[in-house]
Amino acid sequence: MSKQEVMLEQYNEPEKLKEAMRRNPHLTRYIDDWVKNGKESPAYVEQLSRDMRGVTRPNLIYPVGDPVFIHIYFEREGERLKYHPIEPAIPAQAADILEKVEEGIGLLIDEKYDYETIEEKQKLLLDLLDKVMEISSSVKGLGEYVLRKKGDIVKIIVNQETYEAIKYVLIKNKIGLGIIDPMIKDPYIEDISCDGVGPIFIEHKVFASCETTLGFKNDDELNEYAILLAERSGRPVTFRRPIVDATLPDGSRINIVFGRDISRRGTNFTIRKFGALPLSVTQLVSWNTMDARIAGYLWLMLEEGMSAFVSGETASGKTTTLKAICVFIDPKAKVVSIEDTPEVVLPHENWVSEVTREGEDASSKIDLFTLLKAALRQRPNYIIVGEIRGAEGNVAFQAMQTGHPVLATFHAASVEKLIQRLTGDPINVPKTYIDNLNIVIIQSAVRNPVTGRLDRRVLSVNEIVGYDPVENRFDYIEIFSWDPITDTFIYRGIGSSYLLEQKIAPRRGIPRKQIKRIYEELETRREFIELMVKLKIFNYWDVWKVIKIVNQKGIEFGLRKLR
To answer: Is 454 helix (H, G, I), strand (E, B) or coil?
Structure first.
């Protein structure tokens, strides 16, 4: 048995597979067909682990909630892993049964059937389905049915499995997102990418880039589906307005490019998934995205109202880090977040979430610049900008200048590049304003020196000191940096932090002669976060509760409780 097979075997849960097969006949049929084709029986894993990243030839099935299961398998050398959703389906020869069900439901709908939420729509659909269908054990095969007419009412008689399959397909297509719905439900997927006609690709949190067994056969099918996605997001796409950035009902971010006029391979879309529950700062520490001392440092900074940018390339984990560290903002603070697509989730009770709006003309369009100006009138203690790209950056610095701390993400791979972009077109922040930004966190997806896999790492945490007009130079201090050889974080030590000594210590009433106390406070917070990680306090809301208690009763009280 190979090393990879041994790893998979330790996670394999055959008894749970038997139970899942008992509940889901379609899973039984799939595995039987797989084995009949001479292939090795897949392992069954209830919950994936990051340790499985080392498995390059997986053959495993995991659940994403009955009745959907995912099969990840290696097919051939040099190609991506395959990602196959196992879900109930109506046999092709019985496709007309779904048409009859939809026709029957259509005849029953009138103006009294109304709904306001997705939940109400689903309940209404299931109520109508029960009026059209009837379950009977006398009907044997999957997809077989009997029509029974009583007056004007036609009942479709099926067995239990056929009923469950039709119910699943109806909810998936009418309530969910059709073909990609299993991927939306899968918590291990980060990105869903359709490059045009052909297969859909996904970025998996454990198995990286995979090719799915789902896709589109022609342009018409793909265009129709893209229009559906755009309508579900509330921002319709057309040939006149072919590019759409929007948010799907589950909170995922979608970009659609419609038609062959501007995309040579035809319509394409990319979905960036965001879980309902944000990742916590303790999870990031446990994964070594940052260490506990960096987290403790950011805790001190945000608690005292410092402005910070999380900067890096696309897909470097900027928004994830931003959301995770927001728990360090004073729980009593009023926070206003402004975004193009709503991604930020805050635990604060006094939180205003504002989103841009597309419009046919300038009078109906609301952009980040407009929202940011409005936010300044709302007396916030913190302003969070989803991503600074244009003129809103100048307003953000004006907000900092007037005492409103700002937390934002930014596209730049280094402090130098960040300053170049801020001081150049179209943002044009005056050089003398740059020191209103206190902290720049540089983050990236890097090749892990131990595993060889791509992981997110905070490359550096930098303190902006100021601008020297004589030398035309910006001064900043790299207080933390990542060592790519050892995959650890280097801390410059006592006496290295301008912000701790010049900003935080005076606010806490620490005199210059006792400056060591502020570094001791940093170490106390490091110890506190390490203890939370050790105790596996990883849930975002649990971390928030602990931080709130510390804010109210002090960190020493919190340490005693954790110990």
So the answer is: strand
Question: Which pLDDT belongs to residue 3?
Answer: 60
Asked whether the whole model's pTM tops 0.70, one would answer yes
Number of H helices, E strands in the chain: 19, 22
User: Rounded distance, CA 155 to CA 145, Å?
Assistant: 10
Q: What does residue 327 show for φ and ψ, rounded to 5 degrees?
A: -65, -15
Round to whole Å and give the CA distance between 388 and 339. Answer: 9
> What is the mean pLDDT, run by run of 10 residues, along the chain of 563 residues?
65 91 95 95 92 88 95 93 95 84 86 80 91 90 85 84 93 94 94 96 94 96 95 89 88 91 93 84 96 98 97 92 96 92 88 82 78 89 91 87 93 95 92 94 89 88 94 94 94 94 95 95 96 95 95 90 82
> Residue 70: enclosing H or E segment and its boundaries?
strand 69-73
Cα gap 410→418, rounded to integer Å? 8
How far apart, in whole angstroms, are the C-alpha atoms of residue 445 and residue 289? 10
- Chain-centroid distance of CA 482 in Å reads 24
CB neighbour list of residue 237: distance below 8 Å, 6 or more residues apart: 226, 227, 230, 243, 244, 256, 258
Upstream peptide bond of 426 is cis (omega within 30 degrees of 0): yes
Q: How far apart are CA 253 and CA 245, in angstroms?
A: 7
SS3 content of the chain, % helix, strand, coil (to 5): 40, 25, 35
Sheet bearing 335-339, strands edge to edge: 351-355, 335-339, 382-388, 406-411, 308-312, 439-447, 454-468, 473-483, 488-491
pLDDT at 557: 87
Structure tokens, 152 = 């004007």
Question: What token pair was written down for 523?
Answer: 């170490």
Q: How far apart are CA 292 and CA 381, in angstroms?
A: 26
Rg (CA), the chain: 27
Give yes or no for a contact between 254 and 245, defined as CB atoms under 8 angstroms apart.
Answer: yes
What is d(CA 29, CA 19) in angstroms, rounded to the nearest whole number?
14
Query: CA 50, CA 341: separation in Å to the nearest integer?
Result: 29
Q: How do residues 350-359 score in pLDDT, each as one tens digit?
A: 999 998 877 6
Tell me, what's the pLDDT at 322?
Answer: 96
pLDDT given for residue 116 in this prediction: 81
Neighbours of 88 (CB within 10 A): 21
Alpha-carbon gap, residue 259 to 219, rounded angstroms: 8
Query: Quick count: other Cβ atoms within 10 Å of Cβ 221?
Result: 14
10 Å Cβ neighbour count for 492? 12
Q: Whole-angstrom Cα distance, residue 64 to residue 62?
A: 7
What is the distance between the terminal CA atoms of the chain, rounded to a whole angstrom?
A: 43
Contacts of 19 (CB under 8 A, 6+ apart): none
In 3D space, the residue among 412, 439, 440, 414 whose CA is nearest the CA of residue 427 turns out to be 412
